[in-house]
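@channel anyone free to eyeball this complex?
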Amino acid sequence: MGKRAGGLCTKLVLCVGLVVLLSCSVAFGAEDGTGDKLASSSDVFFILIGAVMILAMHGGFAFLEVGSVRKKNQVNALNKIICEWSFSTLIYFLIGYPIARGVTFLVPIAQMGENGFEYVKFFLLLGFAACIPAIISGGVAERAKFWTNALAGGIFVGLVYPLIEGATWGNFNTFLGAESGWLATTFGAPFHDFAGSVVVHATGGWLALPAILLLGPRLKRYEENAIKVSSIPFLALGSWALIVGWFGFNVMSAGSLEAISGLVAINSLMAMAGGTIAALFVSRNDAGFVHNGALAGLVAICAGSDLYHPIAALVVGAIAGALFVFLFNTETEKWKIDDVLGVWPLHGVCGAWGGIAAGIFGLEALGGKGGVCFFSQLLVTSAIVIVALAASTVVYGLFKVTVGIRLDPHEEMIGADLAVHQIEACPEEAF
Amino acid sequence: MGKRAGGLCTKLVLCVGLVVLLSCSVAFGAEDGTGDKLASSSDVFFILIGAVMILAMHGGFAFLEVGSVRKKNQVNALNKIICEWSFSTLIYFLIGYPIARGVTFLVPIAQMGENGFEYVKFFLLLGFAACIPAIISGGVAERAKFWTNALAGGIFVGLVYPLIEGATWGNFNTFLGAESGWLATTFGAPFHDFAGSVVVHATGGWLALPAILLLGPRLKRYEENAIKVSSIPFLALGSWALIVGWFGFNVMSAGSLEAISGLVAINSLMAMAGGTIAALFVSRNDAGFVHNGALAGLVAICAGSDLYHPIAALVVGAIAGALFVFLFNTETEKWKIDDVLGVWPLHGVCGAWGGIAAGIFGLEALGGKGGVCFFSQLLVTSAIVIVALAASTVVYGLFKVTVGIRLDPHEEMIGADLAVHQIEACPEEAF
Amino acid sequence: MGKRAGGLCTKLVLCVGLVVLLSCSVAFGAEDGTGDKLASSSDVFFILIGAVMILAMHGGFAFLEVGSVRKKNQVNALNKIICEWSFSTLIYFLIGYPIARGVTFLVPIAQMGENGFEYVKFFLLLGFAACIPAIISGGVAERAKFWTNALAGGIFVGLVYPLIEGATWGNFNTFLGAESGWLATTFGAPFHDFAGSVVVHATGGWLALPAILLLGPRLKRYEENAIKVSSIPFLALGSWALIVGWFGFNVMSAGSLEAISGLVAINSLMAMAGGTIAALFVSRNDAGFVHNGALAGLVAICAGSDLYHPIAALVVGAIAGALFVFLFNTETEKWKIDDVLGVWPLHGVCGAWGGIAAGIFGLEALGGKGGVCFFSQLLVTSAIVIVALAASTVVYGLFKVTVGIRLDPHEEMIGADLAVHQIEACPEEAF
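replying in thread with the prediction:
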């Protein structure tokens, strides 16, 4: 009976949540859906390829988690990522994008221009937004309730992330981002986050942390040798898909073909190499760390990839790789925070590091292109971290005391695959 | 001895088949191989990327089948897809493309234009044609004879599909497709199938159905709990490769960079989300259905992806996702038709639904771009379904009474991997 | 103690090696880092996509090896590929590219032009250079020392490959490659290797051979039935990633969008089909051979893919597929050379065959575009084979007598995963 009541509560919260989000949509959504009619077919092609590459990264998120959890939660990892991508598509289409960008798609298609540039721009930016639940997913793996977690993801993609996105890149960036904003007039340069070290990754990582803390560790996590990852090959497969797709994430952040920058590409490459090599040395050739070290470098490079000298990019990436290994061990072993995929050190810390690094290595004095200011970077990065921590604490806190955020112990023991999806990863073997 | 005779028969039929196909090539093939000399290098790049993405989808077909069959048939799934891609390349190059498009490549390369646009156009359209055997493969899995099935695929790719393609998109489309064709003058609009919901997917799915019926179910399929899929992760990997590549399948169907449409991209995205979410709810969070639901949405969207409002695309995709779950269960459990990957509901039914949907949601009254007619859509979709059913019944029927279409029971019991390929999927484990 | 001394020796050699390489950098590196300032944003986009596709191929190299080794060396395969990619990035950036192309990146970024074309060109060419250790990795798998092998790879990527690249495509190609070079004046045509059959693949394959011979076969390799591959699905996954990415490797070798050639794409396709089908028949439907046969065709087509008639490309690929099956069996079974992934027949022999084939099927008399000469092809191909054999014999020979190149028998028995990386491929299963 308690379970049925819980189910009803979940649905109730879901409905209330949707109503809240939809009213926000009405409040913030711009009436004007004209978009950029002048953007050429080449720009549509360019942005489309970026969007598709980021879509492929979500397959990477799925397999990174498949490999990093126990076999009894592999199906759950896969279903979470593809479903949350799909939920995010709807929510960001209806609510998030209108808030962040001031464009609604609920207008006749004839108003969206000949080649539909705004549509592919949405696709690209959805790829960024949908990283939020994909990042959280890795932290709360193996014990979070499917639907409560999906609802939290929906609130973040529909409301929290779009506000952060709108404040830095989009609709309300006159305050922080634009030339004449407060940061520019106070410190000499606006906040700079080229491809989302802070806006996407730090937001995701710091949103995940309260969820991880509120959930608590997996059962038997801190008994001796109780939990091992299921598959390094699947983990590496996920990492490769993320690495390859990341060049779309970063390069196509230019926004138009004319603005493409080979510097962004080589800096991403150097940061990936730096992160990999640093993780290799610090972890003493541990495969999980090495494949995540590449990602740590790529998380950190996003913000300033258009500014750095390639040698600086290498350093930024290497610091990120080393940070990841050190903090993952500290977090999960010393502090006993059960962050399954290490999403707080990977996306949270390396993302924040990326934002701050742009204020250091982006300076002309260090070979960068300039136009950045350390204090602007520090301030906005800190602000976003605080907003993310607060938002997640409220959302997951409320859910914890109402509908519950965690599988019951029996469900967790048999694994989410059987408990939630009625199937195992390899049903034939199990049979 | 019976086996050797069978082998001889197969080879005989193969030779006769090739002769028939080659004579068709002579009959239909155009002498003029000049192609489109004016298409720019950007168009070549654009189409090439589409072609490569569709090639990646074939890797997806392979892994979707690997995950959905038992482990003893994984190698067979992999070999079928890569070999039938290779056979299709040859046959479509020599026979199919000349029939469908009136261009032969058996001319000096100097005649094909500076940048070789016709060559990449062939590559893209081969990706479509090769879907036919890849779709059938999933239906006849675990029991069809390798060579007989390959020969049937060759006939479809060389003859049946090119006739359908030529009638709708290509060489002989004055009847159905062009502005002045019979459908346009009778009903006000020609048949519209932008990216092949009907021409590719329905053709494949309805070609598969007679093969599945003529083969009969796998041994012990309808004994209790006898057959389970081998690997949800591989199934999901295949699904991701198909999803990502599909944006090449749909967007590059524009045929030239100038004609690129962001609307096609966002509609594919919305249909994928709709299909996923519908399958999630109807199947109660079943991983196999969810990952196929995304594909169902994508199958259905192809035809009208250039016409719909994104909200309509969501609806078209969601209906497809729900249809797939419902019909797969009905087909395989109630009707006891052993369609291993559900290719009839997925490609056959959702493809036909896509063709018909273009005649509904493509209308201006429903927010679409117009220029379509429900009756044109219904008529041609039905015609293609009937042609596919008839062609497959004749081909597989003839093969069944002559060379045989099914592995012998011992081969089926030990699995096609050992029986046909002399190796298991994980030889080290087996050893 | 012997082990610690060995560790010290390795580090010493590493340092000396780096000093040698860095002095080469000073000696050969051009001062002028201006690059091609005029190349348009479209060219940057075009080359970037090629580079990203080649990056994806390295994921393919990783999984091809994962599937082809025993489970106890899967992690090692994964770590080798991603780490050697990262090392190669650094070394080719600092030393290799300056040697081969006369451009150093150790200059202010403002000097590298608006869109940074030189940066993406570096990324693309790094993808080629990093194939060298990735190819060798497959030959020396399951028994080579991680660090010694990495150092050898670094020397090849930093020095040997750049000299070959510089002599044929780059900095010093006035001798061999340019219109007025010795080959052109002596035989009528310079050496032609459009996308690296010889420069990349033959170099890699013939560098691998001495390493394989100096290492000797894996323990118990030639006892009866002692060693089986671990996973055909992972092998096939690697093959698919390589196949798909190869269209970037070949097509983007054009170097600029304007020079794109659909002929290169269709010839790659035909060679892949030819290689697959030939391997299918010669190996009697063996899955490992079929998926490597496709690669054999693609290795062989690189050199002349811009010259052949598609029918000739089919023949070149088919010969490569047959060659691979025949020579792999001869090499590993008859000659008892334990080339784990068959990199000598695949890259070494099929690469050399590709170089020679360009001098045959590239001729106008055989339907090609002409401008090639059989003797130029034969001469330079032979020279590169000899240089690679010599360089590898010296490097691996020196390492063998100093720091050692092979895991000790205990490490090899338990597998490199546990011995080097302290983790197994599927830790949860093992536990």
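from a first look: The two ends of chain C are 31 Å apart (CA to CA).
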